[in-house]
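Before a colleague's protein record goes any further, I have to sign it off. Would you go through it and say whether the fold makes sense for this chain? Take the sequence as given and treat only the C-alpha cells as open to question. The record follows directly below this note.
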Amino acid sequence: MATEADAEAETEAKATPGPTETLVDRILPSRARIPEQPPAGNYVVIDVTHFSTTVVELFENGAEYVHVTENRGDEHAYKDEYPEAKIGGGSSADYTPTEGYDFFNSPSYVQTVDVDGQPTAMTSTNGGAAVTDLRLRGGDDVTVYVGGLCNAAAVAAHLADSDDPTYLVAAGSKGKPSPEDVVGALVIGRHIYGDPPGASERLVYQEIAHLAKAPKYEQKADIRLNDLVEYDLRFSESAVVPKLDGQKLRDVGDA
C-alpha cells in the first residue's frame, strides 16, 4: 500500500528533474524547439525583450487580461468586437504605435496607456507566437505561463508545488536562441528547483542580458534602452503570474 511519503516522492519526481536530468534538460532554447506534440506539463514562455515584460507591465497597470492573438493584425477585429480593449501592435520608425494601435511591445510605452480595468490584446513575433504554438499544439495537456527576469520568483513559487513537470521555453529570435531568454529560463528554473541565484550571480545574469541587447539599443531611440534597463532587467520585482486561459493571459499571482 502506498504511503504518504511515497505520494510526496512521486509528486517531487514529476515536478523536478530526475537523477539523470539537469535543469538544462527542461529548457527549450528557442521557440523553434517546441515539439509538434509537446509532452504534458507546464510551459513558461520567456521573452525578456520584450513580450514577457510588456505583459507583466500591462497587468501591473491594471489590465483585465491580455488576449494573445494568433497573428499580428488580428487585434483590430478583436477591438471591433470589444471596443473598450486596448490593442498592441508594431512600432513606427519613431517608436510610437503604428496606426490603429494603442501601444506596441514596450514595457516603457505601456506606462503611458490607461489599461486599468480594460481588456488588452497583442502578440509578438517570438514570445507571443510561442504562446500560440503551445496552445494549438498542446491543447488541454499543456498549461502555459509567461515569465521573465522581472517575475521569475513569483512564477517559480506558483509552480513549485505543481504535480506536473515544468518546461522553460526561451523564445529566442527567428528560431535561434537569445542570451537574455536563456538567462531568464535559467533564473526561473533555479528558483523552481530550490537553487535561486545569489546577489553576485544575479549581477552576472543581468550583465549577460545587458550585453546581449544594449549595444543594439544604443543605436535606437532612448525608449528601447529604457525598456531594457528600467524594466526587462529587473530581478523578481513583480508578483504577476500570467497564465493562459483559452487565448487570454490572466494574472494568477498570489492566487
User: Anything to note?
Assistant: Helices lie at 4-15, 51-60, 74-81, 127-138, 152-159, 179-192, 199-217, 222-232. Residues 22-249 form a domain with the putative 2-phosphosulfolactate phosphatase fold (CATH 3.90.1560.10). Strands lie at 27-28, 41-46, 65-68, 86-89, 103-104, 119-122, 142-147, 166-170, 242-245, 248-251.
